[in-house]
Amino acid sequence: MSLILADAWVITMNARREIWERASVLVQGDRIAGIGTRPSLEHRNPDARVLDCRDTIVIPGMVNTHTHLFQTLLKGLGDDMPLKQWFTCMTGPSAAVLTRADVHAAALHGCVENIRSGVTTLVDFMYVHPVPGLGEQVVRAYQETGMRGFVCRGFINAGADLGVPVPLIENAAAALADARALINRHNVPGARVRVGLAPCMIWTVDAAALRATRALADETGALISTHVSETAFEIAHAQQHYGMTDTQVLSELGFLGPDVLAVHCVQCGSADIGLLHAHDVKVSHNPCSNLYLASGVPPIPAMLKAGITVGLGSDGPASSNNHNLFQAMKFAALMQKGFHRDATIMTAEKVLEIATIDGARAVGLEADIGSIEIGKKADIAVVDCVDPFMTPLHNPVSALAYSALGHEVRTVLIDGRIVLENRTMPHMDEGAIRRGAQRAADGLAVRAGVAGLRQRAWPMRVM
Ligand SMILES: [Zn+2]
């Protein structure tokens, strides 16, 4: 099967960052096989199907380096609350009553949101397991929607005294045994969906479990993701229990390494940044979530200056309210400009890099994805410019970083397969997925006792 995406702006994200106008991309099987003019590609591939991509921007599919897909069901339930209340009154109680059907419905709908906004690689961080088998439900959703990426089997094994619901606290050995089984089942050579590890954070995972996670990663080669220095509370807790920051604790434990994707790093100081760089730790930046939860502004410019690889994430919809990396790009740029009062500190080009090629590097897939180059996997998003929000268009990078809202994504390929075409998912019943997510969300909110949380602000009644 050959396909030509014809006559588009092509933002390659190759080493020279070349952008081609009226260019065409040839896809053969699961790979990018050519970049050239439409006549030349058509002449050499007369049997190829041609998709007219005039007035579009073709980009490498974006890499969403952090989400919690189960939180798709919690969208809008925890708005405008302090973080502690957000967790103990909404997210925690909801997570404690999750079922396998809930997680499947949430993950399917979350994958739809990601694909519809141009994401082709996703890192899910599944740290709540009140019942067994939830990690497998997320893997299933990736397989059904065609998503590429990682399902990180996370866990919590401490923190009851700090408000973590008891059903969420696992025995670390059992959690890691489940992770090992998932890794053995799914991490086969060439797999599109791989399983990783995800100890939740410093105050919900003890030192022995962190060491055991590192040992399992060394043995299996699995990616590790963990939340680092998201809030001042984490720093204070680590100081109180270990006499140092959480980054320093992780370093002392021998946990840090190039296979670690550290999420947030909002409160990291210069010594922490030095440690992250020294261990070649990758950082997942989630600007919408950091602002939504009032966690703060992470020192991303300092990390970039130090040479740390930074990828972009949406975070779970309980603290970002959607999966949309276009929003995340804009917030990533604007939060730093405003905070530093320096309009040059984070550019459109940089945020597009962290959403694509740098994200690919952050998850160790830069040889295969993150740019449009011959030989790479055909993970591609086609963004429509015939749209009021994209008009007028002078510079396609600016249009993507600052003008696009996400709905402009018209067509998406993952592994050379069309998973979205003309804004329709050819292999999925999106209506059924959406209704399933709403039904699951309604049921979960009632069971968790959080259904009324958002209705209390203003009176809402059925007419
Ligand atoms: Zn998170």
Account of the protein in words:
- The protein is of the alpha/beta class and 463 residues long.
- It has 2 domains: 2-60 and 376-420, Roll (Urease, subunit C, domain 1); 62-362, Alpha-Beta Barrel (TIM Barrel).
- It is 38% helix and 21% strand.
- The protein contains 16 helices and 16 strands.
- The protein has helices at residues 38-44, 83-96, 100-116, 134-145, 172-186, 207-220, 232-242, 246-252, 270-278, 287-292, 300-306, 325-340, 348-355, 357-362, 396-403, 430-448, and strands at residues 2-11, 19-28, 31-36, 49-52, 56-60, 62-67, 119-126, 148-155, 193-199, 224-228, 260-264, 282-285, 310-312, 380-384, 409-414, 417-420.
- Strands 1, 2, 3, 4, 5, 14, 15 and 16 form an 8-stranded mixed beta sheet that branches. A 4-stranded parallel beta sheet has the order 6-7-8-9. It has a 4-stranded parallel beta sheet with strand order 10-11-12-13.
- Helix 3 crosses helix 16, helix 5 (172-186) packs parallel to helix 6 and helix 13 packs across helix 15 (396-403).
- The chain is globular and about 70 Å long.
- The relative contact order is 0.16.
- The model has no long low-confidence stretch (mean pLDDT 96).
- Residues 66, 68, 125, 227, 263, 315-316 line the site of zinc ion.
